[in-house]
Amino acid sequence: MTAATEPYVLNIGPQHPSTHGVFRLRVVMDGERIQDVEMVVGYLHRSMEKLAEERTYTQNIPFTDRADYLAAMSGNLGYCLAVERLAGVEVPERASYLRVIFAELQRIASHSMANGTFVNDAGAWQTPLMYMFRERERILDLFEMTCGARLTTNYMRIGGVAFDPPEEFYPAIESLVDELPERIEEYAELLVDNEILLARGRGVGIISAEDAINGSLVGPMLRGSGVPWDLRKAEPYCGYDRFDFEIPVGRQGDAYDRFLVRLEEVRQSTKIIRQALDGLPSGPHKTQIPLALRPDPGEAYARVEGPRGELGFYVVSDGGSAPFRFHIRAPSLINLSLLREMAIGASLPDAIVALGSVDIVVGEIDR
Amino acid sequence: MSALRMGRRLPRRTVPRALMALGALVAIGFVAVNVAIGYVVIDGRLDGQWYDVRDLGIGVQELREWLDDRNAQQPGILDFLGQHWISYAVTALLGATGILSIVGGALLILIWVERRLIGRMQIRRGPNRVGPYGLLQPIADAVKLIQKEVLMPRGADKVLFFLPPALIFIPMIVAWGPIPWGAQMAYLDVHVGILFLIAVSSLTTLAIFMAGWSSNNHYALLGAMRTIAMMISYEIPLSIALLSVVLLSGSMQLSTIVEWQSTHNVWLAALLPLAMFTYFFSSTAELNRTPNDIAEAESEIVAGFHTEYSGMKFGLFYAVELGNALFVAALTATLFLGGWSLFGLEEWIPGYLILGAKISAAYFLLVWLRGTLPRFRLDQLMKFAWQFLIPLSLLNLLIVAVEASVFARWEVKGIVSLGLFAIVNWAAAIILVREWARRMGYRPEREAVRQPILTQGVGGLQAARRLGAPEMGTQV
Prior knowledge:
The complex is a heterodimer.
Chain A: E1 8-12, E2 24-30, E3 33-40, H1 48-51, H2 61-67, H3 72-87, H4 93-121, H5 127-147, E4 156-157, E5 160-161, H6 169-192, H7 195-201, H8 209-214, H9 220-224, H10 231-234, E6 247-249, H11 255-278, E7 298-306, E8 309-317, E9 325-329, H12 331-336, H13 339-343, H14 348-358, H15 362-366
Antiparallel strand pairs in A: 1-2, 2-3, 4-5, 7-8, 8-9
Chain B: H1 3-6, H2 14-43, H3 56-73, H4 85-121, H5 137-147, H6 158-162, H7 164-174, H8 193-201, H9 203-214, H10 218-249, H11 254-263, H12 268-271, H13 273-287, H14 298-301, H15 311-336, H16 351-372, H17 378-409, H18 414-439, E1 453-455, H19 461-466
Helix pairs in contact in B: 3-4, 4-15, 4-16, 5-15, 7-9, 7-15, 9-10, 10-13, 10-17, 13-15, 13-17, 15-16, 17-18
């Protein structure tokens, strides 16, 4: 005997503990089984791309802080690379190294947050998140030391970086880089060998390599599905080809693989920072550019491997001091697009875990 | 100009200081009383007289004898409700007041203790602003909750929505009745104590389902449905685990179980490891605590069945949750950790202190679990109950039944037979858990797969295939 059931609509968000910001899901459910998912975005839209057309190139850098507010350095870096390509600005060697160091620090901070919230979504009561915040806190302290801001750093400049790190920066980052491998092992002990997390993450939200490529996924989502694609290797910028590091790739393409990939990327980032610190050249940290930069008419696209994947900036110049067109290719938005495929047929807890493994930042989705 | 405007420090520490002094006074008084009891006991003066506060029963017995004397002298004055009604009334009042004040006071402290402990586990400080060491935080929370508006969602079933916060409170308090705090210090020492506890504690489910159903909210409904499914599943292994305790000790009366442990100088935890594990795990499911807090899974269904409750109604749910956790700790301490007895030490230390220490230890375990583990999924929990806990606890029950009959029939010295039982049960527990887990498909060899592949090269689909990415549509 079966009882007649009918599907109902469950509204998740915009305010919900695991939507990571103001993001909304309309879920059609039959019992605990998900039949359809509609993603509603736009609650955090600030019309950044239009506003940017009114401001000079340097004035636009703070927008990139606020797009992906968990990885401001990567946003800065991508935008500055795009404008440098557009205007043909040379970057000193020391600036490139500093950019690498800060971008990798930002990756560690962002991945700590991503993994912490992922475990939170799997039901842990904040503990792993709090531990990972400890490292993030120290990285943000380093940011504050250097550029005065912790979250919206506004550190990179067209032609270099804004400030040379102060004296006390070097011992602090040395001790952090020395400690990080131990810390990561600690988390691995607590989380990777955790049977409950394994049971929650394995086989949940599987994306095959084909689907990942067809869905133009990027970053840990793509690598979690087994595709070894990392812009730092494929299209090295800022001299990433000088550093020795490896790309972690998942085996099955499920939520747990993405978690593992992020954890391993933190290890690799530590390696890169260590090499960059050892090889940090002296010299200027910035080339002087005119205050109101007026690039020749043309267009440029630059992309960097942000913590969430390929972060692209498209800038068009008409010869004026403000960009004619400014567009951000946000990895979160594109990574999110496969959530529907991951969630349909799964149960609600699985969908939440799958969403947690996407690691969205709503500031970047809505811009 | 006021002191605030002038920027002078206001004397803000005076109130906490006074309270700190009061608290210290109370604590010193409590310790002093117990030390005095200990001294008098050692001195041999506390020899079962009415003033022997280690044992409430002695006082009642005295009262009863005094009543008998009075009735013998002047019959008819005090016996219009039966001979001993005053002694019953006095005991009932004393016990009920005791339970309510102890549980209520413990709840207030527990909120602080739990938040502090979790704070320490999460490398932060926990509440430390209100009062000394943040001790007044629960009171501040309660005041805040009372001030808040109690909302009634549109479309809610008004009566059913109104009742659950009160209904859920009753079983939590009533369940404390049979817990023995000392030799004769049980408020409701019924012969079918364990049956009573199982019956009372399952009443909580009704209140939870009422709350979830009447809220007119999908999250609440999902939480209530999950609760029902989980309670039904976990009542069974829980009852079987308690049944093995009953078989071995030969009684359902909690005080007799404690006395059995005390006379045989053994804790049932040492004899029945699997039963204790089953009981503890099932209890976490019934309590909605991690790793089994699926009924109010925060990251999924916000707050489960009490999503729509605000103000002090939410506060009651919160308090009951803590109270039930404390009760599970108390029952664990009573059934498996020897209750108020401690290998003869209860002769000198009041039993309630020993039990309190054991409850704290068991409660710490619950907090520790909450601070460490992620959450299971509903179907995984169900599978664990039906495919793992129930068969294992049935097998365990079989072993314990054989042991109990051996113990009852053959006159072997307790230390020999019980020692043998302990060895057999521990071996059986380890083997059963391991083998059954392997039967269910748990393979620790998968350990090697818990690492990503590391590569230097980049590429697209071909590179992915070379690294071993599965074909589309293949089952992994």
